Amino acid sequence: MSFLKKISSFLVALVVLGLLSSCGIYDPSDARKVSPNSKERVKKNLEEGKGLSMKKLMGGGAGGGTSYQFASSNPMWRATLEILDFLPLANVDYSGGIITTDWYNEGTSSDESIKITVRFLTNEIRSDGIRIIVHKKRCNIQQKCSVSKISSALEQELQVAILKKAILFEKEYNKKNKKKFKRGEIRD
């Protein structure tokens, strides 16, 4: 092996080791604090929620691991999609907490369109949990358009409609799960 190949191999190994140690994959531990018994370490890791088990992978277990919430189980998200279902959607990002419609024109005025953006600030059903922004686009005959953010009653009307629908979805969900719990279908 040539000298350059040896140096490049050494440098690659050094970079990989540096990346591993900075990522937290390699974490040297103090032998005084960590038991040498592997079964005790496994038990401690599972109690702290650090372990990976089939129960967690299959959705069971309420341990301290990561919990995933899907859009279909979020009443605010579902309500917003249902309220805005007559509008074409341009961007729907559950993980980013934003829904943006495309430009929409009712047909009453050919030179004006609106775009609605809903930002989710929390998963809770609260009036301050969402922020609705309405933009208006006005175009002239030469197709020169101006876009402006407007404050209108539409924002408040949409917010009230979304909150009402979200409350209904949550009541429906709680009622359904209460029945399942009474029948013994949900167990932890």
The number of distinct β-strands equals 5
Structural class: alpha+beta
The H-and-E topology, N to C, reads as HHHHEEEEEH
Q: What is the first-to-last residue Cα distance? A: 59 Å
Q: How many discrete domains?
A: 2
Low-confidence stretches at least 5 residues in length (pLDDT < 50)? 62-69
Please give the count of helices: 5
Give, in spatial order, the strands making up the sheet with the most strands: 1-2-3-4-5
Give the overall silhouette: flat
CATH topology grouping of the largest domain: Alpha-D-Glucose-1,6-Bisphosphate, Chain A, domain 4
Q: Give a quick account of the main beta sheet: strands, pairing sense, barrel closure.
A: 5 strands, antiparallel
Cα gyration radius (Å): 27 Å
Task: Write structural notes for this entry.
Helix content is 40%, strand content 18%. It is of the alpha+beta class and 188 residues long. It folds into two domains: 3-57, no CATH class; 71-183, Alpha-D-Glucose-1,6-Bisphosphate, Chain A, domain 4 (2-Layer Sandwich), CATH 3.30.530. A five-stranded antiparallel beta sheet has the order 1-2-3-4-5, covered by helices on one side. The longest helix has 31 residues, at 153-183. The termini are far apart. Mean pLDDT is 77; it is low at 62-69.
